[in-house]
Design a protein that fits this description.
CATH topology of the largest domain: Gyrase A, domain 2
Oligomer: single chain
CATH superfamily of the largest domain: Probable tRNA modification gtpase trme, domain 1
Number of strands: 12
Low-confidence stretches: 1-7
CATH architecture of the largest domain: 2-Layer Sandwich
Radius of gyration: 17 Å
Distance between the termini: 25 Å
Strand content: 25-35%
Structural class: alpha+beta
Number of domains: 2
Number of helices: 5
């Protein structure tokens, strides 16, 4: 069952405070309209799937818990023969396009309405996450391109490390099931309150 495109484009944080505390320690950007697909390679077909992605999208299939990108398409390894792929502003149509491209090499499910994603940047992102996640998010331990399935407070999340900002501030994306959006927002904003938290939508 797919969400209506209007639902995917709507903020999951309506009614939540956009500013908590004072300062710009953590800037949270809600990702809206993102096309999200879960890909599971069928037995013995991962190599064929990788070749199709390389030939048609110029995208290398990551081996392990990391992500690669080309243009506005990203793909992250989240388990054995299992990946999450995203495309900006593609909505439900993205999974359908991947299903057509990969054919019988993989099973593709549309997850565009399943997740809420916050992109976190700013000079105090690591200090904020250190209060909430049990993994080491220092740049030496969790490098740009790394992906982890972990917990944030008591929530199961997916954490992506992206490239730093031009100011060398770290950038992360944190994913959670849409029904847990309010709990994620409360956890992040409360943890960041001493540094200043601001939320935008894009």
């Amino acid at each position: 069952m797919h969400a209506d495109s209007a639902d995917i484009a709507a903020s999951a944080f309506a009614g939540m405070p956009a500013i908590v505390g004072s300062g710009d320690g953590v800037i949270a950007t809600e990702r809206i309209g993102l096309g999200i697909a879960r890909i599971a390679a069928r037995s013995g077909r991962a190599a064929g799937m990788a070749e199709l992605l390389r030939a048609q999208l110029g995208l290398e299939l990551p081996d392990g818990p990391s992500c690669t990108s080309r243009g506005d398409v990203r793909i992250a390894g989240i388990g054995p023969a299992s990946w999450l792929a995203t495309r900006n502003q593609a909505g439900n149509a993205f999974a359908a396009s991947l299903r057509s491209l990969l054919g019988d090499c993989a099973s593709v499910s549309d997850q565009s309405d399943a997740y809420v994603i916050l992109r976190l940047a700013g000079p105090k992102v690591r200090e904020t996450l250190a209060k909430l996640v049990p993994i080491d998010v220092h740049r030496r331990s969790f490098e740009a391109g790394d992906v982890a399935q972990t917990v944030c407070g008591y929530l199961n999340v997916i954490l992506w490390r992206l490239e730093d900002t031009p100011q060398r501030d770290p950038v992360f994306e944190i994913w959670v099931g849409r029904s847990l959006a309010v709990s994620l927002h409360q956890a992040i904003s409360h943890s960041a309150a001493e540094f200043g938290f601001k939320r935008h939508t894009t």
